[in-house]
Structures are given as structure tokens and as C-alpha cells.
Fold this sequence. Notes:
Elements: H1 3-13, E1 26-31, H2 45-63, H3 65-71, E2 75-85, E3 94-104, E4 109-117, E5 120-133, E6 136-138, H4 140-146, H5 158-180
Antiparallel strand pairs: 1-3, 2-5, 3-4, 4-5, 5-6
Amino acid sequence: MNLWFRLLLMLLRRPWRSPVSGLSTTVIRLRVWPLDLDFNRHVTNGRYFTLADVGRMDYVLRSGAFRVALKHRALPIVGDVWGKFRRELKLFERFEIHTRMLGWDHKWSFVEHRFVKDQRVIAVVVIRGLFRGAKGTVAPVEFARSLGLEEKSPPLPQWLSEWSASCDGLSSTLRETEYSEPQRKAG
Length: 187
């Protein structure tokens, strides 16, 4: 099923879904459809990242983060994504996506999506994202304050801090090489 249809279904169900606090876990239930599959007849790796978007939209709507984004006329931006695949999902199988905020730093918010089937975690997707408006990046602490959370993030796991630092390192390397390599003429 196309992502847009899943998103529309999630939005249509929204009035019956209760609001949650900013550090709560939201759960959506989905099914594997033919367009989710690769040549091995299981969900393609990239589809997990796309499905995580639907889970994240549910979280943003239910937690009230969308109100802060609207106030700043900001759009969500995914900066980096990490995935761990443990088991496969096959055609027509039902599964859930459990989404929760892991924490934040001065710039980034860290969100985890656990793909669960039969009470087993079959995949995990973690994103490092932000909201950017006309006046620049909206600080995660602004969201925390507006959602009634403490401004200080819950402690981030060591692996998450190290991953974030490695993303910063890669970004620096890309910027350096982008501007230091001679421009090649298209020929």
C-alpha cells in the first residue's frame, strides 16, 4: 500500500486516538502489502525508513509537537537515519511500529521506531532530526518546554551519543571535501 494511503488512514483514525505526553511511546498497527516487498519477497530495507515516517507523524500529532511546528512555521527534517534489521516481514503479516522520543541535544531530537511482530522486535530505526522554519532551526528545548517536559533531555545512551558524534564527523568531512576538491567541468 502506498505511503500516502497509510498516512491518510492514520490521519482519519486520529480523532479516536488519545493524546500522549512527549516521552510516551505511540503504537500504530500496519500490514505488509505487495508494494512493500523486494525480490526476496520480504519488506525491503528502505521501506522500514518510509514506514517509520508514518509512525513519527502519529507521534508528532499525538504529542502536540505539531502545534510548536505550526507556531514557528517549521517543517520536520531528518538529518540522519540508522537501522538494525533482525527478522523479516512477509506479505500480509501484521506488525506494529512503536515510536518514542529518546532525547535531544542543542540541535537534534532523537526518535526510535521499533518494528514489532508477535511481541518481538524485528527491526529498529533511529532518526536524528530537527524542525526548520523561516528563522532557522527550532531548538529542541523549545519543543520540550511547549510539551510540558523538562528542558534537560533524558540521558542519551552511549551508543546514541557516539552515533550522533560520528554523524557530525561525517558532515564535517563532506563539507571539507566539497569545498576543497576542484570543480570538474561537465563534459
